[in-house]
Amino acid sequence: MNVRRIHLVRHVPPVSPGLLWGHGDVAPAVVDCAVLHQRVQEVAPTRLVSSDLARAMLPAQRLAKKLGLELETSPVWRELDFGAWDGLAPEAIDVEALTAFWEDPEGNPPSGGERWSQLCARVRRGLAALDDGALVVTHAGAMHAALSVLTGLDHHGVWAIDLPYRACLTLRIWPGSTLAGQVVGLDIGDALP
């Protein structure tokens, strides 16, 4: 059986954390992060992929140089598109609309934004294209979607898992007509911002 081990790492904090950053392209607070570099070195990736958004891509470019790997970027690994809410603080959004979204992101997506199923479909394609040893620098939403795709947990189940900045999630994926896998490691490490 040809099992693949894939590593997903959440990007470093953006310059303005605490806001709903989806497809909005905000810069990272730091580009060279020792904690992120150490975490990536520990898994010894054979391939490096990143979201094409700056908060993931710029630190990934630095990692690629340090690891001697070519960086591939892809919009497949972007965060959930928050549409009209992108860049807003949660308290700036109508509380009923935000509550409805958290309860049912499929039936109540942000205005102009993406449904949960659309994010999961994107991530499913992304996972299928990765080979053993690949590491992806991505976003919490995409990591939660990967967990949902592989385990069958709904959004409530996967959103209960805290994935702070620089968290590393290691997944084992079995071959087959549908993706099936298990979480084999979650390193959330330090609590630094």
From TrEMBL:
Instruction: Give the source's domain of life in one word.
Output: Bacteria
Query: Which InterPro entries does UniProt cross-reference here?
Result: His_Pase_superF_clade-1, His_PPase_superfam
Q: Which residues form a coiled coil?
A: none
What is the protein's name according to its record? Histidine phosphatase family protein
Which source organism?
Answer: Novosphingobium decolorationis
